[in-house]
Amino acid sequence: MATIRTDENFPYSNRDLSWLAFNYRVLQEAKDPSVPLFERIKFLAIYSSNLDEFFRVRVASIKSLIRLGKRTKKAIDFPPEEVLDRINETVRQQQLEFTEIYQKHILPLLAAINIHLVKEADLKKTQTDFLDKYIEEKLIPYLQPMLIVKHKIRTFLINNALYLGVELGTKGRTPRYAVVRIPSHRFPRFLVLPSEQENERLIIMLDDIVRYALPRIFPGYSIENSYSFKMTRDAEMYLEDEYSGDLIEKIRKGLNKRNIGASTRFVYDRNMPANLLRFLMQAFSVKSSDLQPEGRYHNNFDLFQFPNFGLQHLQDEPLPPLKHPTLSKAQVLFDCISEGDHLVHYPYQRYNYVIKLLEQAAYDPDVKRIRILQYRVAKDSQIIAALRSAIAEGKEVMVFVEVKARFDEEANLDWAEKLEKWGAIVKYSLPELKVHSKILSISREEKGKLQDYCYLSTGNFHEGTARLYEDYGFFTKDKRLTKEVDKVLNYLEHGELPKKPFKHLLVGQFRMRKNIYAMIDREIELAQAGQEARITVKLNSLQDHRMIRRLYEASEAGVKIDLIVRGIFGLQTGIEGYSKNIRAISIVDRFLEHSRIYHFHNAGEDKIYLSSADWMTRNLYYRIECAFPIYDKGLQEEIKDFLNLQLKDNVKARILDPKLSNHYKIDEGQRPFRSQLEVYAYYKKQLEASQHAKK
Q1: Potential cystine with 473: which of 295, 300, 344, 487 (Cβ 3.0-4.6 Å)?
Q2: Which reactions is this enzyme annotated as catalysing (predicted)?
Q3: Are residues 309 and 340 in the same domain?
């Protein structure tokens, strides 16, 4: 997939097309025969879930730009009409490959182990008897057919709901059309059927159960054909004038409007007859630019529900989170943190130390105050439970809740209201800014003075995602950092602007960009002086044009730059005059690469930061982000070891080239090196060495 370049003096790739290239890397995992079968099915689900959100947010924004007209579009780097055309064509090609992977790879592999997906036409009497009972006892109340008469009778299509468009025939009459919703919001998408053969496992999809039921819900009609479709709607919240009125109330109203937003995509079975497609387009005011053909089934993120029948050998080998070699030995975590900084790497190591710290803080009589920034939390959050205990024990608890965490707004509002009822001080989103930092501060009385203990992380306070997302958590009592964390929290709690610049933390809205520039410029100076100059950066996304320009300048000065970027990638590598000294890879594997790391060689005096911030304009300008330095030399070495392991990956790494072709990074003659497994082995060896030393 070639990228668009609008400025020959400054090569960069469009963010949305580069994101589609990332999602294709997810699809590559579903295609990879070395990936266990049920994990391949899971990657199909991840690809589909990602794509749905992309259309609800990014494509919705592009269509809004198109509607705004020429004056606004002058300030846009890429013509939105051209980008939309490229998106639609790219997704069409990817969907064809998705169907091929599913039909020609996944289904035959399932059949080889005697798991079969059956359609309504394949059913035998044992299955029809079972389904007749299932439909009558459970399904029929939720099957609500609607006859559609063009320009007169139509139904509202709910966002991402699944529908069947049905052509009905009657003797001597013009065919009629109807719509039936597939009730996947009420019933499992996959149903295991009884089989007449031993060891045979039969599965039918809910879509085909509804197809089987069509004759009984349309009595008097013949079912000529039926084809699936769905509509995806704009999920963006357009919070006009965030500075006036009640921001929380505006967000609540935005949530109510989210599922009735403008159409961004009309997905349909590519085998749907032209006459039925035209009828549906006219009936539901669908534009040709909204059309997106797929296979027989949509909402393939429901493949997360696919039954695995307990076949563990067709799933990833378990990698249970390991104990931390030091924190695991501590009875009281405050004592352990007092002895030095500690770094925990998820999901390779356990997350429970964060929960344990909060629980110990809740019941420690010397703890006076807890302050925390919440972006996303688990459904049954142990973090929230620990905060509730702290409130009950009389601690002062301040929680800053970022309500504008997309698709978690409602959950965040609910938790915030509960915390307020329990007695917490709750602060909410700031106008025009997102608070994306992940910070916990605990104030404890020691020797007559308050001592702050801090936990900073690249990931959320979410024990669920900590089992899937690769992130770092950092425990410290270092006053250089805790004092500056206090300044960040005072700004968010009381609106107090810092009186002095931050010397240690890099904080979004407070010179983060300039501080990063200064470290890049230092490497440029070293390179120009003939010394070794090197930058290694790991990010989720790299899009900010000014940051890309600065990296180009560093490359041309002779700085060696390694980039590990999971998702959006606007920089173009290997271009003479710009980026000949820049290499970039992306790793997509069983764990979601989520940590952000900035490493500047600095003439051997390493500067290493862990961060919540990607190098995107939104992170550097419109969010409160935090990058925190790692000063401990041992922890620095651990992070450098991790980066080196990632850079050696020749199994799951893809080369990020200007065409975003996603070629695998293959080292000829070298043994296969899969970094996530190597990182796990690294920490296992570290733990074993610690246990051996204890003996």
Answers
A1: 344
A2: [phosphate](n) + ATP = [phosphate](n+1) + ADP
A3: no
